[in-house]
Amino acid sequence: MSKFGTIVVGPAGAGKTTFCSALISHLRANKRSCFYINLDPAAEEFAYEPDVDIKDLISLEDVMEEMGLGPNGGLIYCFEFLLDNLDFLTEPLETVTEEYLIVIDMPGQIELYTHVPILPALVKHLMRGSLNINMCAAYLLEATFIVDRPKFFAGTLSAMSAMLMLEIPHVNILSKMDLVKGTIARRDLKRFIHPDVGLLDEEVPDSTSHDTPGDDDDPYAAGNVMGGSSFRRLNRAVGQLIDDFSMVSFLQLDAQDEDSVGAILAYIDDAIQYHEAQEPKEPNDEIDTDMGDRD
Ligand SMILES: Nc1nc2c(ncn2[C@@H]2O[C@H](COP(=O)(O)OP(=O)(O)OP(=O)(O)O)[C@@H](O)[C@H]2O)c(=O)[nH]1
């Protein structure tokens, strides 16, 4: 029996939980079943009660208090604990049938999928072995980043890094489109939807705020650790890297707009089906939960 799921990732505040809720509303309105998993041990408010909530396994608050850890260390601890207790996910998911879309809401700490291989290990567990779920990652980046082009390209790079690290079907999504629509011409928007490295060359910083030695807030300032031209060269190199891979383009999401949610769901469905048709599974692959060297 096939199972289908999407794991919703992206930086803090990108709109992941809101997107999960919008997705669930859309699925319900279209008489599709959904199995909602919250893996953010700090999340407190949900429009829909999760079917599985990591907080029933471990509480971030308790971990921080008892282990004397900060929020990021505490989160990593929670996920290590989850990986040591995967039955918490496996048992309820075993009964989920192919009519369901499994929706997994993740925390926003980028360390989870860039610095330590927690997320790849989790995804491997879901996709292989007894669960055998056909998964697609949905990576959210806030559309408001486009007002700061280096920041937008840094976000795009993290989306690409997640794609390469997870190695599963992947859709990239510019969330909160309602906040930028009307502020940017359609033609210009296209250059962010399919990231165009030329945007960085056109970045003309405000001349009044530059080259002020020691201005810590201004990345272009001459007194900064990396002076203006170094910063621009770095941005261009990052942009070129993204351009060379030609891997990233974005779907547009306004969580209040049913049509945009439906269109994204169609892409997720297609990505999952396409992958299922292309790649035979390797059910006996070992799950690597080794966190490796974290120094
Ligand atoms: N205008 C607008 N705001 C949105 C949209 N989606 C989410 N938001 C707002 O963005 C804020 C963060 O949304 P969340 O859904 O909590 O974001 P998250 O990625 O789950 O956050 P973390 O779990 O903390 O990483 C909330 O105030 C939401 O109401 C959208 O499409 N448009």
Automatic annotation (TrEMBL):
Alphabetical list of Pfam families matching this protein: ATP_bind_1
Keywords attached to this entry: GTP-binding, Hydrolase, Nucleotide-binding
Signal peptide: none
Segments of this protein annotated with the region Disordered: 202-222, 275-295
Physiological role: Small GTPase required for proper nuclear import of RNA polymerase II and III (RNAPII and RNAPIII). May act at an RNAP assembly step prior to nuclear import.
Nucleotide-binding recorded as keyword: yes
Recorded family membership: Belongs to the GPN-loop GTPase family.
Comp. bias regions, Basic and acidic residues: 275-284
Summary of subunit composition and partner proteins: Binds to RNA polymerase II (RNAPII).
UniProt-listed InterPro entries: Gpn, Gpn3, P-loop_NTPase
Protein's recorded name: GPN-loop GTPase 3
A single GO molecular function term of this UniProt record: GTPase activity
Compositional bias annotation for Acidic residues: 285-295
